[in-house]
Design a protein that fits this description.
Length: about 120
């Protein structure tokens, strides 16, 4: 998956070639940060979005790739609501959610803050 994603979207030597990756500052093959982000989006869509009133997002703040993701790593996402922002429209609200992506050793490999749009209930309901 790392090689396939890199060939298509992020063809840097440390994502594509094991020998070049060993000679890089990473010391071995690593996943593209964008690949990690795509995997996180999949986990969010499967594990968070169903059953919520989300209607998309405005983007994210403070994206950090903190540790390399390597072949065989198992990732999980921890999400914490940090702030509810005043809505621009009365039928929607925006929530800042801090996301931390962990590998199987509990190390945070990526973090970001999502600005998620939620439908609001009508007043009085």
């Amino acid at each position: 998956e790392i090689l396939e994603f890199a060939r298509q979207f992020d063809p840097q030597p440390f994502h594509l070639d094991e020998a070049a990756a060993r000679a890089s500052l990473f010391g071995g093959l690593i996943a593209s940060g964008w690949h990690t982000g795509a995997m996180v989006m999949r986990m969010v869509c499967e594990g968070f979005v169903p059953g919520t009133a989300t209607s998309g997002a405005l983007g994210f703040d403070d994206l950090k790739w903190l540790k390399p993701v390597r072949p065989g790593d198992v990732l999980s996402v921890e999400a914490v609501v940090r702030e509810k922002l005043e809505p621009r429209r009365p039928d929607r609200g925006i929530v800042k959610i801090e996301n931390r992506v962990h590998n199987q050793r509990g190390e945070v490999v990526m973090s970001l803050v999502s600005l998620v749009i939620f439908w609001r209930r009508p007043a009085g309901s």
